[in-house]
Structures are given as structure tokens and as C-alpha cells.
Amino acid sequence: MTSIHASAIVDAKARIAPDVAIGPYCVIGPDAHLHAGVRIASHVVVEGHTEVGEDCIIHPFANLGGPPQHTGHKSEPTRLSIGARNVIREHVTMHCGTASGRTITTVGSDGFFMVGVHIGHDCIVGDHVMMANSATLGGHVVVEDHVIMGGLSAAHQYIRIGRHAFVGGMAGVNHDVIPFGNVWGNHAHLEGLNLVGLKRRGFSREAINTLRAAYRMLFAEEGTFQERLEDTAEVYARSPEVMEIVEFIRADSSRPLTTPQREI
What we know:
Distance between the termini: 58 Å
Structural class: alpha/beta
Number of strands: 28
Shape: elongated
Number of helices: 4
Largest sheet: 11 strands, mixed
Strand order of the largest sheet: 1-4-7-10-13-16-19-22-25-27-28
CATH architecture of the largest domain: 3 Solenoid
CATH class of the largest domain: Mainly Beta
CATH topology of the largest domain: UDP N-Acetylglucosamine Acyltransferase, domain 1
CATH superfamily of the largest domain: Hexapeptide repeat proteins
């Protein structure tokens, strides 16, 4: 059964599933779509063309679906789509896309977005992503599944962060981060692989050891980077994890790659 506090303002055109709970002083706009099981605490704003997936929990003062922070935005009807079972903590902001971009900002399922997180326009955020307090994504950022971003970290516009990567607290990331990578610093540099995350997520010892050997080959000092990339692809062609890194690097990107700062 839907529960809407008497002080909440819910537009009659909003699409609200039968068992949504909306707390005191919330504002739900006419183009909002809240799926079954969504729980919204007090003082939350859901505006714009925003869809919130099943069983999301949204804490006070979050703002979802606000217009993009983009000087070229002219109030076009762009969108924000949020998947299922996300925890969205206090003061989180997630903005809609831009007409000149993807027109939609996409957030996957089973994420945990801590206090003050910001997801900018046209971003693509995967499943099982964790962003700690005040972590920030500029526009057009792609964050793949199982990424963890530490507190006060920030990602530059248009970069990609590969699956299972870890971004350290206060890191300023302005280059692409390989899958399974572990980056720290401002500006961020590659410290190695996210070994803790790999172990926690059940990757086998063999897979981890193969990744470590491939990493050493890829970021060694001998030869050019392109030569090392091709050698890595040939030697480890049967490793799906290594080939994920290779294909990530080979893919078209508008940003360079985050690399180690010192010898590995």
C-alpha cells in the first residue's frame, strides 16, 4: 500500500507504484516514475524525467533528476534512469543528461552512494558500484560494474573506469582506469591491481596471478606501450580478465590512460 506523508508534495501526474513510501516534505515532480518498494525519507526532491527502480532507499535531502550543470542546457526534456535496490544517502545529487550528449544519465542496480555523492550529466554507472562520501563524477563519465570510489575522489569528464577498479580517497582521476586497476593520488596514478577487491569477489588465485604477470608485462619499461600491449594480448589470449584489460585499452576513448608513476 502506498504511503505518502501529508506534508509531501506529489504531482498528480507522477507514476507511483502501489507500495511506495514517501516521507515528510518531499517533492515529487510530474515526470517522476517510482517503482515498487521505493522508500523515500524526508526532504527528498525527485524532479525532471526521472525513473527510480524497485526497492531503492533514498535518504534526506537527496536531489534526483535536477537539470544538468551545463551552460548549453536549454531545459530540454532529458532523463535520469536509476536501477533497482540502490542505497542513496543524504545530499546525493544525480542529474539528467543533456540534449547534446546521451540525453540520459544511467545508474545501474545494487549501488551504494554515500553522503554528498554527485553524478553528473550523461554518465553511465554500472551495477554494484560504491561511491564514498563526496565522490564526484563529471559529465559523460563511464563507471563499470563493481567499481569503488573513495571519499572526496573525483573523475574528470569523459573518462572511463573499468570493472572492479578501485579509486583511492581524494584521488583526482583525469585519465582512463583499466579494469581491476588500483589508482591513488592527485592527479591519480596506477598503483597496481585492486587485489583486495579481486579476492573479496572470489577471483581464483590462478586468475589473480595471471593478472599480476600480465600487468608487469604491460607496464614494463622495455619497448613501446603498443608493442607491450600486443605481446600481452598474445601471451594471455586465454585469460578473460587480461583480455578485458586489453580490449578496454584498445577501445576508442577521448582520454589517455592512467599509468604507473614509478617502476613496478
